[in-house]
Amino acid sequence: MKNKYSDFNNIFGNESEYSSFSERDIEELNLLSYQHIADIISIIGDLLSYISTIESINLIHSRYTNETENLPNPDIPAVQSLELLVISRFIYTQLGFIRFDHFKERKAKGEVDFSLEPDIYVNISNILRTSGTLYALLAAYGIYERDLSQPIIGI
User: Fold this and answer.
1) Where in the sequence is the domain holding 60, given as residue range(s)?
2) Which domain of life is it from (predicted)?
3) Per-chain mean pLDDT for the chain
4) What does the pLDDT average to over 122-150?
5) Closest Cα to residue 70, out of 59, 78, 56?
6) 27 assigned to some structural domain
């Protein structure tokens, strides 16, 4: 019998490995696979932010060494970094709400008796972090369009 989650391309192994797993565990593994993807996107975003910082340092140094050829544009990786971080934040937020909904359903059925308050805090945190990242992206777009010689600092 085909599991309802078997259509997902799971990064943790192939479908036959899960034949003895409970449906709930398979569901959790699928959610974790999406979280894993969001983690990778975040790491790439952080690397782009690091590249932007190094390029900004080099750009400032070039002003005093009279280098004018092949100057980096550190705003590009800064903006790309934030675009990726927005995507990862949306994924984390969606995962938090999916997990909350699953716990809420299980609580309504009497399967769990713990408080959902921590999960509510997770969702609030995700909303705030996603909103903050969106504002940072808007700021980066504004700085990029305003002045290409000014590095994007602080986001």
Assistant:
1) 22-146
2) Bacteria
3) 88
4) 91
5) 59
6) yes
Q: Cβ distance 46 to 81 under 8 Å?
A: yes
* Count: domains in the chain: 1
Is residue 10 included in any domain, yes or no? no
% of the chain at pLDDT higher than 70: 87
Would the pTM count as exceeding 0.85? Answer: no
29, amino acid identity? L
The tokens of 18 are what?
A: 């899960």
Residue 155 included in any domain: no
Q: Is the pLDDT of residue 129 over 70?
A: yes
Q: Is residue 2 in a domain?
A: no
pLDDT at 16: 65
Cα 22 to Cα 52, 95, 108, 126, 141, distances in angstroms: 45, 20, 20, 28, 46
**DSSP per-residue letters across 99-132:** HHHHHHHHHHTTS--S-SHHHHHHHHHHHHHHHH
Task: Please enumerate in sequence order all residues whose Cβ is within 8 A of that of 69, keeping only pairs 6 or more positions apart, or say none.
Answer: none
